[in-house]
Amino acid sequence: MTMTLYGTLPSPYVRRIRLLLDGVDYHFEDVPLYNDEGRQQYAKVTPVRKVPMLDDDGQHVFDSHVIQHYLQRKLGLPELTFEQHNLVSVIDAVTDSCVILVIGGRSDLPVHEDRLLFKLQRERIEDSLQWLEQQAIQGQFDEWHYPSMCLVTMIDWLEFRQLHSFEHYPALLACRARFADLAIVGATRPE
What is the model's pTM? Predict the structure, then answer.
């Protein structure tokens, strides 16, 4: 049986699945999403053209949420609680808003202007990070589980892309530091 994970190395959505697959035998296929030819080739594999995408011996699984659920069942991983799903949703809100700002900037759009689309993203990022900081203070990320994987990958990606400073979020930084020495975290850190 062959399992292939398609994605880009820096993507926080891909990286969280790589963290989840720690210890599982699989192949990683780097997808060149930022050139026309690469996107056309990838469109032959997935109609949504998003990363990650998992091919498990011909079974195509789209989107990190569905992949996580699929792997949870396949590998016998613990099911996420309602609270953990909420944590992941808020982490995704931050990440999605940052993706919009990055793609907007790469498309030469005025992402720093006070336009509604970009203003909403910046507001969502700040409100969500403040909420996540409170969750971290309450210990929601004390264990190494899927929400913690999502948090670590988000923080690392935002810093890697120089999209946000975490100086006002010491509890979030402490959560990341708690897991920094895990081999899989170091091996997958974006560079």
Answer: 0.95
From 75, 105, 133, the end of a domain falls on 75
For 126-164, write each residue's pLDDT tens digit. Answer: 999 999 999 999 999 999 999 999 999 999 999 999 999
The pLDDT tens digits of the residues spanning 70-99 come to 999 999 999 999 999 999 999 999 999 999
For the four alpha carbons of 184, 148, 134 and 96, in that order, the dihedral sign comes to positive
- Output phi, psi for 29, to 5 deg: -115, 110
User: Which range of residues forms the domain containing residue 57?
Assistant: 3-75
- Tell whether 121 is covered by a domain: yes
Q: How far apart are CA 125 and CA 116, in angstroms?
A: 14
Question: Into how many domains does the chain fold?
Answer: 2
**Range list of H helices, 107-145:** 116-137
DSSP 20-52: HTTTS--EEEE--TTSHHHHHHHHTT-TT--S-
> Is residue 6 within 8 Å of residue 53, measured between CB atoms?
yes
58 inside domain: yes
Asked whether residue 188 is assigned to any structural domain, the reply reads: no
| Non-local CB neighbours of 99 within 8 Å, separated by 6+ positions | none
Shared domain check, 161 and 89: yes
